[in-house]
Write a structure and sequence with these properties.
This protein is α/β, with parallel strands linked by helices and about 270 residues long. Helices cover about 30% and strands about 25% of the residues. Strand 9 (about 210), helix 7 and strand 10 form a beta-alpha-beta unit.
């Protein structure tokens, strides 16, 4: 491996990108049920350009091919459920994998390890809200500075309507769903990106909890417990693209954010 005079790598390989990301979010921090790391490809391939995304979909792969990308870095794993077969007749996942292989595109996925990392996604989201006195919501057994979720305080109290407008602006959201369990002013905030409804029973006493995929029964329970929840949607994690892009650019390579991703839900 040669080093150029500026201290960067003359040739950046897939393994270099993986190692750099692993310093941000060690794969040891991933939940036991998760699948992270190199999903597909060759560690020894030279990286031309990187595309960062939330999900590796058909549209994202087409975007990568069109733009000469040969490494995709996603948040959600390309392969999560075990594959029993590759059926190219009509199975979308099989055809995504085939298109990646045919176009020599490697894929790295950093999921719950990036969620939990001390400077990972949840920390990034908390800082997007400009929270102060940020703490880990649920500490990781391997590292007390890491773990799922964050909680902290706003610089000033807001009423709910004002906070929702602020939240939507900071996270670039068009809509959110709210479960109103009390009429408190909003000062203390907990956030857990992705699917965090199961944690409503164990979060600390905060004025509002932000997460995604809140179901009907969890919402009813929150009202009974007089807790405020805002469902920011799982797609709110699209902000991970900014975090990944900033990190990988430190290797002095071209990193693009996917422009074709959108929430699968349509508000009618």
């Amino acid at each position: 491996m040669m080093i150029n005079i500026k201290g960067g790598l003359d040739v950046v390989k897939v393994k270099n990108v993986f190692d750099h990301l692993n310093r941000l979010a060690d794969i040891k921090l991933a939940e036991k049920w998760d699948n992270v790391g190199l999903m597909l490809g060759n560690y020894n391939d030279e990286v031309n350009k990187v595309l960062v995304c939330l999900d590796v979909t058909t549209d994202v792969v087409d975007e990568a091919i069109k733009n000469g990308i040969n490494l995709i870095v996603s948040h959600h794993p390309l392969i999560f459920k075990p594959l029993k077969s590759l059926n190219f007749t009509d199975d979308f996942k099989s055809n995504i994998i085939r298109n990646l292989i045919q176009n020599n595109i490697s894929v790295i996925s950093f999921h719950t390890n990036l969620d939990s990392a001390s400077l990972g996604l949840n920390d990034f989201l908390a800082k997007k809200l400009k929270l102060e006195e940020i703490n880990v919501l649920f500490e990781h057994e391997l590292d007390h500075n890491s773990g799922l979720g964050r909680f902290g305080k706003l610089s000033k109290e807001m009423d709910l309507e004002e906070f929702i407008k602020y939240l939507k602006d900071q996270f670039k959201l068009e809509t959110v769903s709210a479960v109103i369990g009390n009429n408190k002013k909003i000062h203390s905030v907990a956030i857990l990106g992705g699917s965090g409804a199961d944690f409503i029973y164990s979060i600390p006493d905060v004025d509002i909890y932000l997460t995604g995929d809140v179901g009907y029964h969890a919402a009813l329970d929150a009202i009974e417990m007089k807790k405020n929840i805002i469902d920011i949607g799982h797609f709110s994690e699209h902000l991970v693209k900014e975090l990944l892009q900033d990190n990988i650019r430190e290797l002095n390579i071209v990193v693009e954010q996917s422009k074709v991703e959108k929430s699968p839900f349509v508000i009618l």
